[in-house]
Amino acid sequence: MFFSTYQHLIYLDSIKYGLWDCVENAPIFFDDPKFHNLKIQDSCIKVLSPKEVMKYKIGTCYETALLNYFTLKEYNPKVFYIDVNYERAGEDVFRTHLGTYIEFDSYYWWIESSWYIYRGLHGPYKEPDEIFDTLVALYKNTFKSDDLFLNKDFNADSILSTKIVHPSNIIEEGHCRSNDYIGRT
């Protein structure tokens, strides 16, 4: 397990954080000023498939979590979704995140692909709730907010089987906020 997961983590390091611009059919990397001035809801941004992520070596948490799910099938991967509402510079901000965890040898391991300071393999955890407790604490501390939503078992197969063009479609179509576990802390 660890050899193939280790190789996978090394591969994930080659993927740069960024978005795919549908109009220009080109990447917008995180270090590009255009990335930070982009209003995602008003832009033509495409969620890349796992094969496209491997081809272009670009993705956000959405794409890298789905890539983990797609490539680590032998470890029964699960994808989780978390969002937070918080205030920044007097404005309300809504931030979302997809991540992945796997089970191996009766333990659970959180794979972080895009939240750069936490990127890597975390664990072992005795149960998935320990991962979620860690994530909720990190989100509360990072964003200074208790307004959180957590879906512990995001339906990644529904995303991989449809053509999602824009990140907001994942949320709007109920992929994140289905009748799964919902908890505001």
Give a short summary of the structure.
The chain is of the alpha+beta class. It has 7 helices and 9 strands; from the N terminus they run αββαβαβαββββαβαα.
Distance between the termini: 34 Å
N-to-C order of helices and strands: HEEHEHEHEEEEHEHH
Low-confidence parts? 171-185
Average pLDDT, rounded to a whole number, is: 77
Q: Which percent range describes the beta-strand content?
A: 25-35%
Number of DSSP E strands: 9
Number of domains: 1
Structure commentary:
It is a single chain. With 185 residues, the chain is of the alpha+beta class. The protein has one domain (2-172). It is 34% helix and 31% strand. It has seven helices and nine strands, in the order H-E-E-H-E-H-E-H-E-E-E-E-H-E-H-H. The chain has helices at residues 2-13, 33-37, 50-56, 61-71, 128-143, 156-160, 167-172, and strands spanning 16-21, 26-29, 45-46, 58-59, 78-88, 91-104, 107-112, 120-125, 148-154. The strands form two sheets. It has a five-stranded antiparallel β-sheet, sandwiched between helices. A hairpin with a 2-residue loop joins strand 5 (78-88) and strand 6 (91-104). Helix 3 packs across helix 4. The longest helix has 16 residues, at 128-143. It is globular. The relative contact order is 0.16.
Keywords:
single chain, 185 residues, alpha+beta, five-stranded antiparallel β-sheet, four-stranded mixed β-sheet, globular, disordered C terminus
